[in-house]
């Protein structure tokens, strides 16, 4: 997802990468929710499960960071487009 965001600024790739970012953005949150529903209530002392929960939290944090980055990307593109076409 974070690779697609800067690539969406590249001319001729921007639309494909923009759509890819949007699709990835929604797929990630769906998969996080699915994991939580499926495994969230499990009670075990397995270290792999604790690691998986931590990685789920990291994924959620990265997803939350992607929201303002996406907004800033749109603002940047708008500013660049106005500078070029005005």
Mean pLDDT: 88
Characterize the main sheet. Answer: none
| Uncertain ranges | none
**How large is the count of helical segments?**
3
Report the sheet-strand fraction.
under 5%
By DSSP, the count of extended strands is 0
Question: Distance N terminus to C terminus?
Answer: 32 Å
What sort of overall outline do the alpha carbons produce when their principal axes are compared?
elongated
Instruction: Give the % helix.
Output: over 70%
Number of domains: 1
Task: Tell me the structural class.
Answer: mainly alpha
What is the H-and-E element order? HHH
Radius of gyration: 17 Å
Description of the structure:
It is a single chain. By secondary structure, the chain is mostly helical. The chain has one domain (4-85). Helices cover 80% and strands 0% of the residues. The model has no long low-confidence stretch (mean pLDDT 88).
Question: Which helices and strands appear, and what pairs or packs with what?
Answer:
Elements: H1 4-7, H2 14-39, H3 47-85
Q: What keywords describe this structure?
A:
86 residues, mainly alpha, 3 helices, 0% strand
Quick take:
Helices cover 80% and strands 0% of the residues. It has 86 residues and is mostly helical.
């Amino acid at each position: 997802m974070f690779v697609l965001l800067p690539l969406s600024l590249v001319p001729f790739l921007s639309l494909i990468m923009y759509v890819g970012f949007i699709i990835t953005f929604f797929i990630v949150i769906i998969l996080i929710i699915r994991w939580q529903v499926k495994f969230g209530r499990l009670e075990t002392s397995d270290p792999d499960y604790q690691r998986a929960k931590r990685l789920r939290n990291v994924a959620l944090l990265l997803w939350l960071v992607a929201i303002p980055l996406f907004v800033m990307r749109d603002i940047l593109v708008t500013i660049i487009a106005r500078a070029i076409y005005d």
